[in-house]
């Protein structure tokens, strides 16, 4: 099975997969999605699978022990009913290595349609909220409550200095058309009260719960994908990330679909009325410096989307209570 005559890395992966997992690969189609890592849809004598090979430059960014734990826990919560792919094991491990050192994994292929950002229905968000609550509950059972979150909340003066530096860099590089984006972030940072984040709930979070990692069949969630970043963190970051991704369309925030997510989440876990305000402020405080940058004019489509979400939140922070405080 060759995709290109010189694709020796893929040949090696196919040989290992067929040897270890006992299937014969009948067809393979590359999946061009994501950053650096390579993926293929494999049609085999034992069913349809997804093969994922980690690029060395991407793999170096992972904490290997956290990645191994994430894949192990994905397998465990799959068996407990969470809609997510099942990972194939070899010698007790979900993360594998070829003789040449390629790191890879194989999982069941999940059917479904990816969500168009901002276009989620009440039913889709209800289904996603239910699954997110179940995921958080199961992960708390597996890992307990961690003592330290991955996101270290910076003090407000530090964040203000960050925005001052971004504004200076934009000025120095004559990127005046970007100046307003950073100014909106600075304005919001000057009035944020981060003391409320001290009460945020810690657990083990997916940490990449956005439209590209969600598959739906009609109003039902087919699968949550890509658990590679799963780690100790604030659970509300998952909630806010999913809600932003599904419910913000240009300048319109879908309150009904947000209610849908929270209605679903509450079937699995408690969620106090109005807490979504803190969740959204927290995800903004964490992510804004990732996406509003002096080089944001070079963003590809997903970072453009994230930058818009951060800009919208900064500009509408004062309007959120009237929109969402009753949810």
From TrEMBL:
Molecular function terms, GO-annotated: amino acid kinase activity
Question: Where is the Aminoglycoside phosphotransferase domain positioned along the sequence?
Answer: 28-270
* Pfam families for this protein: APH
TM ranges: none
Q: Which residues form a coiled coil?
A: none
SUPFAM superfamilies reported in the protein's UniProt record: Protein kinase-like (PK-like) (SSF56112)
Record family assignment: Belongs to the pseudomonas-type ThrB family.
Name of the featured protein: Aminoglycoside phosphotransferase domain-containing protein
């Amino acid at each position: 099975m060759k995709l290109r005559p010189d694709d020796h890395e893929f040949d090696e992966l196919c040989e290992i997969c067929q040897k270890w997992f006992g299937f014969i690969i009948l067809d393979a189609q590359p999946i061009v999605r994501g950053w650096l890592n390579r993926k293929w849809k494999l049609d085999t004598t034992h069913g349809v699978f997804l093969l994922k090979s980690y690029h060395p430059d991407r793999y170096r960014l992972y904490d290997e022990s956290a990645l191994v734990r994430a894949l192990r826990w994905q397998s465990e919560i799959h068996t407990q009913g969470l809609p997510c792919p099942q990972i194939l094991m070899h010698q007790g491990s979900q993360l594998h290595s070829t003789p040449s050192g390629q790191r890879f994994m194989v999982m069941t292929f999940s059917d479904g349609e990816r969500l168009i950002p901002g276009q989620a229905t009440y039913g889709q968000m209800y289904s996603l909220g239910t699954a997110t609550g179940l995921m958080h509950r199961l992960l708390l059972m597996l890992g307990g409550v961690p003592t330290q979150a991955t996101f270290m909340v910076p003090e407000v003066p530090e964040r203000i200095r960050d925005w001052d530096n971004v504004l200076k860099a934009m000025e120095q590089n004559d990127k005046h058309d970007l100046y307003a984006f950073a100014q909106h972030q600075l304005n919001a940072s000057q009035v944020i009260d981060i003391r409320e984040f001290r009460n945020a709930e810690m657990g083990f979070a997916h940490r990449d719960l956005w439209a590209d990692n969600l598959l739906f069949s009609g109003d039902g969630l087919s699968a949550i994908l890509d658990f590679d970043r799963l780690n100790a963190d604030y659970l509300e970051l998952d909630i806010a990330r999913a809600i932003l991704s599904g419910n913000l369309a240009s300048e319109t925030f879908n309150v009904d679909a947000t209610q849908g997510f929270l209605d679903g989440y509450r079937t699995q876990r408690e969620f106090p009325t109005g807490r979504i305000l803190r969740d959204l402020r927290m995800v903004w405080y964490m992510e804004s410096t990732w996406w509003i940058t002096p080089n944001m004019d070079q963003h590809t489509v997903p970072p453009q989307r994230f930058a818009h979400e951060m800009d919208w939140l900064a500009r509408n922070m004062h309007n959120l209570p009237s929109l969402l405080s009753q949810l």
